[in-house]
Amino acid sequence: MLYTGVRRSDVVKLGPQMERDGKLIFSETKGRAKIVKTHELPILEPLRCSIDATPTGHLVYLVTAFGRPHSVKAFGNWFKRRCREAGVAADLSAHGLRKLGAQRCAEAGASEHQIMALFGWASTKQSALYTRKASRTKLEAEAAPMLAGQNGNRLSHLFPVVASGGTNRRKKS
């Protein structure tokens, strides 16, 4: 899921028959309107290694212990159980991997439209959440050293030195 960006409703349908010329070519469906979008995703090296190292089904990559495809809901539950068994945060979900993928793309400099295309979003509204956060993080990191000012870590006196009594009257000699 991390290397495709697909929803759990689509990951349960991905399989070897969708591979062509180093790409996964598939159609996703979303929502009640069953909006169909076609994708041609390059099979990235980490994904290829994962597929090759994992027993898969004939028509789908992810199968149950009985060799049958997962239902969407059962896959989500199965994923959460595997996370708990692995000792990772109990609140992790399959959707969290999709969000992590979008965050990684944004932090690597992907545009809103690139993220929108990859994740199958119809508008830039969702991708803007990730690019805005990544831009803010980057801008924040670049701006933080400026807090030291032009003098570095040396303090410049913004106010005249005041005697401990609270006044700056000169003592009479």
| Secondary-structure arrangement, i.e. CATH architecture of the largest domain | Orthogonal Bundle
What can be said about the biggest beta sheet? 3 strands, antiparallel
Q: What is the N-to-C succession of helices and strands?
A: HEEEHHHHH
Q: Unreliable stretches, pLDDT < 50, 5 or more residues?
A: none
Q: Termini, distance in Å?
A: 82 Å
* Number of strand elements: 3
Strand content: 5-15%
Compute the number of helices.
6
Helical proportion, percent range? 40-55%
Mean of residue pLDDT values = 84
Rg to the nearest angstrom? Answer: 27 Å
Principal-axis shape equals: elongated
- The named CATH superfamily of the largest domain: Intergrase catalytic core
Instruction: Write out the strand line-up for the largest beta sheet, numbering strands in chain order.
Output: 1-2-3
Structural class: alpha+beta
- Could you name the CATH topology of the largest domain? hpI Integrase, Chain A
Number of domains: 2
Reading off the top of the CATH hierarchy, the class of the largest domain is best stated as Mainly Alpha
